[in-house]
Specification:
Helices cover 27% and strands 29% of the residues. The protein has nine helices and 17 strands. Bound molecules: 4'-deoxy-4'-aminopyridoxal-5'-phosphate.
Amino acid sequence: MAHELIAVKYIWKEGELIPWQDAQIHVMSVAVQFGSSVFEGIRAYETERGPAVFRLPAHLRRLHDSCKIYRMEIPWTSAQLIQATAHTIAANELKSCYVRPMVLRGYGTAGLNPVGTAIETYIAVYPWGTYLGEGALEAGVDACVSTWFRPHPNTFPALAKSAGHYNCSQLIKADAVLKGFAEAIALSPSGMVSEGSGQNVFLVRDGELSTPAIDGSLLQGITRSSVIAIARDIGIPVHERPIPREALYTADEVFFTGTAAELTPVRSIDHITIGTGRAGEVTRLLQKRFLDVVHGRAADNFGWLTYVADVLDQAPVGV
Ligand code: PMP
């Protein structure tokens, strides 16, 4: 089943809140024709102090990096986009939501040279629940290794989060779902483990954590870096290294990380049971720490939460 998009009242466009249904672009926009847009996926969680956005500056930094890689001149600073995000969440009266900033090449040029095309910036916010299905966070999901590979480095720049790259993710995801799996893990062009369609992947063996190194085939996930930081903080060794496919099958535990997937255990891969077939001890420990921090239930020692109320109290920076 595809996820239903739930409309809210307003979308932020270039410094203004406009009605959701008015956020339209022309069919001949370069972004529509060629997938020329970069974006982010961020979560705001309900906390006792109202909505708090998880690692907003880190996501906006990646958005700016994506723009730079694709030579898109975004006119908005991170400080401005932080305020825009907070105002958009507040205007829509959301307690928790997904946040989708988008920077896209608009209308007015033809041909393949994108340089000079008008840039448009939007921030959409909308309700969003568990990504990989009801009960996935507790019970885990069944995954497969995809027959589709991730792109070779120097084809699509994997550090950029660009809409066009997600044609590959859609192939991976649709193929997995049609075969009855919740997700797939794709290999890199060299045949080593890369990532899921929209998540990074970790394995646990003998109490140590491993995840594929940043090798030009996978996105440098912000949840990935958060889980690495939490693990190191509690003394779990973490290795960023090349991982052969079969190491997934023989792992004690495997889990996905991503803004949408949060930290989702994987209970089988290609019908091979992983560990006990249930969320493992290390997975549960890391998941609990992660969810406690994002929901504001544990001390935010890393400074990862941006409370909407705090941002609204600040002097405006021109959004
Ligand atoms: N890989 C891909 C391809 C993704 O789309 C995502 C989601 N943005 C991730 C990994 C996980 O990244 P993050 O933890 O920053 O959401």
